[in-house]
Amino acid sequence: MNSVIARHSILRATTPLRSQSIRRSQLSALSRLLSTLAVLEQRDGKIQGSSLSAITAAQKLGGSVTAFVAGVV
After folding, report:
1. 16 and 1 assigned to the same domain
2. Which tens digits make up the pLDDT trace of 18-64?
3. Which of 25, 38, 44, 67 is the most buried (most CB within 10 A)?
4. Which residues make beta-bridge pairs with 71?
């Protein structure tokens, strides 16, 4: 009987830890959904104006912005 009570107490004590780890993973997934990838174009080492507009639009959405630069050097 004491082992059942002890096991129940341990499970009850670890439940908040489990829910915190679930919340962390959910927050991580949510932050990925709220992030934006901006694909930027550059020519001769200069970022094109349309790419700057993409960054501005991404910032207006909120969340983090990651840029990928493509183009000819």
Report:
1. yes
2. 566 667 777 777 776 778 899 999 988 888 899 999 999 988 888 88
3. 38
4. 42
Number of domains in the chain: 2
Q: Rounded to whole angstroms, how far apart are CA atoms 9 and 2?
A: 10
Contact between 50 and 58 (Cβ < 8 Å): no
Same domain flag for 39 and 10:
no
Is 23 in the same domain as 12?
yes
Are residue 4 and residue 39 in the same domain, yes or no?
A: no
Nearest in space to 69 (alpha carbons), one of 45, 39, 35, 44: 39
> 54 near 40, Cβ under 8 Å?
yes
| Residues 6+ away with beta carbon under 8 Å from 17 | none
State how far Cα 3 lies from the chain centre.
42
